[in-house]
Every structure is written in structure tokens, then in C-alpha cells.
Amino acid sequence: MAFLMVYAMICYNISLNIGGMTNQVFLMAFGEMKIMWPAAIILEFFVVEKLSTMLAFRIVSPQDKPIFITLAISSMIVCLMCPMMSFIATLLFKNAGSNFIAVWFQTTVMNFPMALCWQIFGAGPLGRLIFRTVMKAISVYKTGDF
After folding, report:
1. At what angle do helices 100-118 and 66-93 cross, to 10 degrees?
2. Beta carbons of 70 and 120 less than 8 angstroms apart
3. HSE toward the beta carbon, residue 73, CA cutoff 13 A
4. Which residues lie below 8 Å from residue 79, measured CB to CB, with a gap of 6+?
5. Quick check: 111 and 94 in contact, CB under 8 A?
6. Which DSSP letter does residue 71 get?
7. Residue 110 Cα to chain centre, angstroms
8. Do 116 and 124 form a contact (C-beta atoms < 8 A)?
9. Alpha helices of the chain — where are they, by DSSP H?
10. What's the Cα-to-Cα distance from 138 to each of 2, 47, 146, rounded to whole Å?
11. What are the pLDDT digits (tens) for 62-107?
12. How far apart are CA 116 and CA 128, in angstroms?
């Protein structure tokens, strides 16, 4: 899921920077992927995962429907990851200079709606579908129930 989120957000930001989406953006995004994807995985694993779950369970309870729990955790992940990843992108790619705080804030504000919508409606469901499909295939393979 991190790959889907990071790739889409890089494409989005490149499109904003060049004034629109082109086919070239899809290729250009791979240049930033080698930095931003590992950064996202490290942040998610060491900082965001537990904190987002803790924050989500301040809104929902374990007795709630699983979809509400999933949506709450996904939303909290975006609330935490978006400013962090925007900080890294601003630092590495924006050449903000003395306007760093302003550019970081603008980058975060521009990224947040896209990140939330993409997480809830795109990358989240697609990532979970891929994971379920792979796990099911592994289970079928291990049990021999072809």
C-alpha cells in the first residue's frame, strides 16, 4: 500500500509543479520513488503505525464495524504521514530556502485532500485486495487445495 500511496502522491506533486498531468509524469515519478518510498515505509513502521491506531481508537471502539475501524485508522495514517512526507519532499525537492515553513505548510495543505481521498477510495481498497488475494493464494498453495 505504501508503494501505491507514494507513487500516486509523487505523480500528483509533479503534475502540480509542471502545471498538469502528462504521460511523462508516470516515468518521472520513479526518480523520486527511490527516496520517498523507503522514507514512507520507515516512518510508517517506526512512528505512524502504533500512533495512528492509538488515535483511531479514540474515535472508534473494537466493537464497531470493521469498516469504521479501517476508515478511522486509514484517516489517522494520512493525518500523520501527510505532514511528515510533505516535510521530506519540501526539504529534498522544493528548494524552499528561507521560505521553508511556508512551502512545507502549502505542500501539506495541497497534498492532504488528495492523500485522504486516494487512501480511502483508491490505494487502501486496492492494497487490501492485493494483500487478501496473495494471502489466499499462499494459503491454497500451502494446503494443496487447488
Report:
1. 150
2. no
3. 16
4. 52, 55
5. no
6. H
7. 14
8. no
9. 2-18, 23-43, 49-56, 66-93, 100-118, 124-143
10. 21, 29, 11
11. 999 999 999 999 999 999 999 999 999 999 999 999 999 999 999 9
12. 16
Q: Which residues contact 146 (CB under 8 A, 6 or more apart)?
A: 140
Could you tell me if residue 8 is left (phi over 0), alpha (psi between -120 and 50 degrees) or otherwise beta?
alpha
Spatial distance between the Cα atoms of 143 and 119, rounded to a whole number of angstroms: 33
**Model-wide pTM > 0.85:** yes
Single-letter residue type at 132: R
**C-alpha grid cell for residue 36?**
520517498
* Cα(36)–Cα(5) distance, integer angstroms: 10
CB 57 within 8 A of CB 75: no
Query: For the segment 20-66, what is each residue's pLDDT rounded down to a tens digit?
Result: 999 999 999 999 999 999 999 999 999 999 999 999 999 999 999 99
Q: Which amino acid is at 119?
A: Q
Place of cell 512512528: 47
